[in-house]
Known about the structure:
This protein is α+β, with helices and mostly antiparallel strands. It is built from five helices and twelve strands.
Amino acid sequence: MAGINIQKKYISALAKDGKRIDGRKPDEFREISIETGVIPNAEGSARVRIGETEVLMGVKIDIGTPFPDTPDEGVLMSGAELHPMASRRFETGPPDAESIELARVVDRGIREAHAIDTKKLCITPGEKIWMVMIDAHVMNHQGNLIDACGLAAMAALSTARMPKLDEEGKIVIGEKSDEPLPITTKVFPVTVARINGRLMLDPTLEEEDTMDVRLTISTKDDGNITAMQKGLTGALTMKEIEEAIDMSIKKGKELRKLL
């Protein structure tokens, strides 16, 4: 415990001078790598690494029934699995608050941006639609899971292909068509952490243990904000919020180039 407190004090002292324990600048991400098509049986998939943080995202597309209030629209559903092998902090069992928040933040950014044209996922109004399910699996947790999962979700959705149907309109198991998902824009969440009064992007696990507040801002291709999510108990000033938004928009433009 003493060692942890010493590390927090060190990270906090560095942050005060605009420095970080790994030498990065406040607005600098760790090295990012993206692989797509890593799950052959999924309609879409991606593995994203940000530094040592690693997540695997799968996209499953199936036929279902529309909701009564949106009879001519398809459905997007999101989930997240925090495996114990990814971190000693995770435990087996039903989804906890952290996994639920992770899935919801990623889902909200995509949903509010209308990144998928859900009307084009309608097969028969009021009867049959396409359901798009994205599931995140955290393979290694070393900080900034929200941004890693958001990037993986967009990579997987952008490269997904619709299932192949037979003459009776049933899905042909194990086969995909050449038709892509109707993607309208790319959405990326960028999380800003505050440590000792300084705003930092892409916090490591140690930095997350030291931050007092975080703000995740999702933006689409035109730079417009689609969702915001605050975490932890700290309060942000309007000036800090405006600075965080500027950092998010700028970094979002850089992330889009990776896809």
